[in-house]
């Protein structure tokens, strides 16, 4: 066969693959509706295990890489779950025409929440300094008023703190929550609202605005003095597969200083060292290793994020300096061990780290 003939044959196979995927998705939709009407959970881990096992078994029988087959099936499963999750959220329609105001709703995470609420049947109003006044759109949130069933504060951290303080004086009737990555700048506003008798709580989505499937993702609920508000907020996400975690105001920022602050700083230090090394990025890429490539992938993602938000996460956390000091101490310790030729100390450092990391169970999906 000529090359063109082989490529045409391959094109035909690819078309059939896409047709089979479409057929599979149709069946998945019917399965999702059946789960919804019978009250069964969206995700069935036992079934996923069977599907992936069968894919690997069939791949071996056909002399195909089992890892490739599993990877393809895992992608199809994620797509199916995302579709079923969206259908369930829409079907349960908890909004039922209720109104929600998203302050900062034109931002990335604000946009995610706007879509989430709209899919549940809420009447969504957006207030954001980057937009012009229009139908259910306001440049200044004050112009929208506070007569809403739900108010979400999705502005930058420092601004969110001021908004919460203002809302405490306005005493809105509905549920109010922020989605800040830190709570230190928001504590005063949250406490003022609680003291004023407002139905207020605080959320921290541990996922980004590009997230379509909430399975394996975490959403932190921080009680701000109104257990009823926290309970109501949690119910809004009951149709999703997100893992709900509860935390108090005192613990949140101390733990986030390591989960976000330390991990961000480590990656910023990594790409800063590379950028200032004098070595061209393409040249380093040619000498890549598995570890380097993995670290570069994460650091590249961090470098593309909002630098102003990342500075706020570092600067506005009252517990933020401790993890940075620990990072500096650790790097200096490694440097000293290497400079002194202390092999035993270096090995012990890695052994200790291995033991610590072994105590952490791997999550089902990255956070």
UniProtKB/TrEMBL annotation:
Keywords: Oxidoreductase. GO terms for biological process: chorismate metabolic process; tyrosine biosynthetic process. GO terms for molecular function: chorismate mutase activity; NAD+ binding; prephenate dehydrogenase (NAD+) activity; prephenate dehydrogenase (NADP+) activity. SUPFAM superfamilies: 6-phosphogluconate dehydrogenase C-terminal domain-like (SSF48179), Chorismate mutase II (SSF48600), NAD(P)-binding Rossmann-fold domains (SSF51735). PROSITE patterns: CHORISMATE_MUT_2 (PS51168), PDH_ADH (PS51176). Its EC number is 5.4.99.5. Residues 98-367 form the Prephenate/arogenate dehydrogenase domain. The keyword Phosphoprotein does not apply. Residues 1-88 form the Chorismate mutase domain. The keyword Transport does not apply. InterPro entries: 6-PGluconate_DH-like_C_sf, Chorismate_II_sf, CM_dom_sf, CM_II_prokaryot, NAD(P)-bd_dom_sf, PDH_C, PDH_N, Preph/Arog_dehydrog. PANTHER family: PREPHENATE DEHYDROGENASE, PREPHENATE DEHYDROGENASE [NADP(+)]. This is chorismate mutase.
């Amino acid at each position: 066969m000529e090359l063109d003939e082989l490529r045409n044959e391959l094109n035909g196979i690819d078309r059939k693959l896409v047709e089979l995927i479409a057929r599979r998705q149709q069946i998945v939709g019917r399965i999702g509706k059946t789960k919804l009407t019978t009250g069964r959970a969206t995700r069935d881990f036992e079934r996923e295990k069977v599907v992936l096992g069968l894919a690997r078994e069939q791949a071996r029988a056909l002399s195909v890489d089992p890892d490739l087959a599993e990877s393809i099936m895992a992608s199809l499963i994620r797509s199916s779950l995302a579709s079923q999750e969206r259908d369930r959220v829409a079907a349960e329609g908890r909004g039922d025409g209720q109104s929600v105001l998203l302050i900062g709703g034109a931002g990335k995470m604000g946009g995610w929440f706007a879509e989430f609420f709209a899919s549940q049947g809420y009447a969504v109003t957006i207030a954001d300094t980057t937009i012009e006044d229009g139908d259910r759109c306001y440049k200044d949130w004050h112009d929208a008023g506070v007569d809403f069933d739900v108010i979400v504060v999705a502005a930058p951290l420092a601004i969110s703190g001021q908004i919460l303080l203002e809302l405490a004086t306005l005493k809105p009737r509905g549920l109010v929550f922020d989605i800040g990555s830190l709570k230190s700048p928001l504590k005063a506003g949250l406490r003022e609202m609680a003291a004023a008798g407002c139905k207020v709580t605080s959320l921290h989505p541990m996922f980004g605005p590009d997230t379509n499937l909430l399975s394996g993702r975490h959403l932190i609920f921080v009680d701000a003095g109104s257990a009823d508000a926290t309970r109501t907020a949690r119910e809004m996400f009951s149709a999703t597969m997100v893992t709900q975690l509860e935390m108090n105001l005192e613990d949140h920022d101390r733990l986030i200083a390591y989960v976000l602050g330390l991990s961000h700083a480590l990656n910023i230090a990594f790409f800063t060292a590379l950028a200032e090394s004098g070595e061209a990025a393409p040249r380093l890429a040619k000498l890549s290793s598995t570890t380097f490539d993995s670290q570069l992938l994460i650091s590249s993602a961090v470098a593309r994020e909002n630098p102003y938000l990342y500075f706020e996460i570092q600067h506005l956390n009252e517990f933020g300096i401790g993890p940075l000091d620990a990072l500096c101490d650790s790097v200096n310790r490694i440097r000293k061990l290497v400079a002194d030729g202390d092999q035993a100390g270096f090995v012990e450092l890695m052994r200790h780290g291995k033991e610590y990391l072994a105590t952490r169970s791997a999550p089902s999906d990255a956070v």
